[in-house]
Structures are given as structure tokens and as C-alpha cells.
């Protein structure tokens, strides 16, 4: 039985596995948590709280600089994503997405991108953090999908990430590749000069590439409508005000 027959459809005989995957119908799936764009100071502080907590587990010294919102959080061309429990609103994860629509990417303060990317629409995912390990993997996967969907929405050519070892292996499994294999691990100013690997994924070819390699998350990313991911309408300019940076981070119960 082929994949389409499993979903109640018959595929033409002789189709390859790639063709079957690309022809799959879209399913709808609900999640136990939501992912949305931060649009208020209160939401930003929730994102900052889970961000700081996540970094404190792995890089405690650098995490001390993340107790408050950063100037990048309210810049145009930037959005902060927040994953929340649908049960009680507990913040479960966060990611900041920064495009080069108004300014170079943060990583470009530490290195020069190759010519094929230098003049293209880019988006860099930064400050990824998840809460409890029990849900961490699922939250991280959905945040990645939200990152991809946001890039599609904004007409981005390349998704760019920076990752420490061994986190970089997780991005390899998502089919990210080195921006320049010769770079290795580069100390980056916007992450405390810690050595990071610079990796990218081309948005336009991702669906075909994932299908060709029969990626285990293909259906999750490309053939599942997750209505709990809410990116709102396209908006290049950040709706948050810089005044959000001045507020003290409230104490929260996790």
C-alpha cells in the first residue's frame, strides 16, 4: 500500500516515493500548545523569561545578559515567537526571527556571508529556548516549522541559524548545511563570542528536497495544517515599542 492509499487516495502506478509524498493531501492537527508572534510587552516578558531559563541551563554566564528584553526584540524586521501551554498559558518556548529587510543580520557583524546569499532576503533564527525537557523536543520542532512558515510568508530565500556543538547536529537532521564549510565554528559577537557553526536552508527548494530524501518530518512540516501556529498577517515592521526594554522582568512561576 502506498502513502496516498493510506490517506484514502490512489496514486498512479509507477509513481516514485517522492511523487507520492508530494501528492499527499493536507491534514489538520491540533497541538497541546500554541505558537504565536509576540505583540505585547507582557508577552515579550514571558518570552524573555523562558529564553533566560533555557540559556541558564547550558551557558549560565551568558544567560546573565538575557534577563531583560534586548534591543533586537523591538527592531523592525524582527519578530519574537512564543509557545504557550493551551491549558494554563505557561510559556514553553521562544525564538526570535530577524530578517535583513532593514539591517544586516546579527551574525553579519562577525563574518561575511558568501556572494550567493549576500544580496538575498535572509532570516536568522536566534535566541531559541525551550522550557521543560519533557515537551522541549515537540516545542522546538513546532518553532522550527513556524520559522519556515514565516520565511515563506515574508518571501525569504534563505533560513540561517547559528548553533553550538552538539546542537548543530539537530539542524543537520533538518537538512541545514554549512554556509561555508571552511568556516568551522566561528566566535559570534551576538552570542557572547561563543563558537557557533553557521548553517542555512534554502526555502524554495526545501519541500522537494525533504520529499526526495523521505525526511521523517515531511508530512508534519509540509502536509499538516497546524492551526495552533498563528503568525498573523505579514508585517515587516515590529509592533512592539522600545519602551518594553525598560520594564523590569516580572517573576513568573514555571
Automatic annotation (TrEMBL):
Residues 47-177 form the N-acyl amino acid synthase FeeM catalytic core domain. Coiled coil: none annotated. Transmembrane segments: none annotated. It comes from the Bacteria. This is N-acyl amino acid synthase FeeM catalytic core domain-containing protein.
Amino acid at each position: 500500500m502506498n502513502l496516498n492509499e493510506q490517506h484514502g487516495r490512489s496514486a498512479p502506478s509507477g509513481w516514485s516515493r517522492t511523487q507520492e509524498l508530494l501528492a499527499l493531501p493536507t491534514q489538520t492537527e491540533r497541538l497541546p500548545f500554541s505558537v504565536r508572534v509576540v505583540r505585547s510587552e507582557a508577552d515579550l516578558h514571558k518570552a524573555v523569561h523562558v529564553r533566560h531559563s533555557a540559556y541558564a541551563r547550558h551557558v549560565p554566564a551568558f544567560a546573565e545578559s538575557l534577563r531583560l528584553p534586548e534591543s533586537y526584540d523591538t527592531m523592525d524586521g524582527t519578530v519574537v515567537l512564543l509557545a504557550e501551554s493551551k491549558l494554563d498559558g505557561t510559556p514553553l518556548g521562544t525564538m526570535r526571527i530577524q530578517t535583513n529587510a532593514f539591517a544586516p543580520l546579527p551574525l553579519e557583524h562577525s563574518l561575511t556571508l558568501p556572494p550567493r546569499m549576500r544580496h538575498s532576503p535572509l532570516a536568522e533564527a536566534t535566541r531559541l529556548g525551550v522550557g521543560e525537557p519533557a515537551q522541549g523536543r515537540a516545542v522546538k520542532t513546532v518553532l522550527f516549522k513556524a520559522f519556515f512558515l514565516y520565511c515563506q510568508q515574508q518571501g525569504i530565500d534563505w533560513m540561517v541559524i547559528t548553533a553550538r556543538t552538539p546542537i548543530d547536529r539537530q539542524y543537520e537532521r533538518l537538512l541545514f548545511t554549512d554556509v561555508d564549510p571552511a568556516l568551522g565554528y566561528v566566535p559570534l559577537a551576538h552570542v557572547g563570542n561563543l563558537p557557533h557553526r553557521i548553517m542555512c536552508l534554502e526555502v524554495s527548494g526545501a519541500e522537494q528536497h525533504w520529499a526526495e530524501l523521505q525526511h521523517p518530518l515531511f508530512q508534519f512540516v509540509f502536509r499538516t495544517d497546524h492551526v495552533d501556529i498563528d503568525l498573523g498577517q505579514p508585517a515587516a515592521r515590529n509592533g512592539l515599542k522600545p519602551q518594553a526594554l525598560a520594564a523590569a522582568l516580572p517573576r513568573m512561576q514555571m
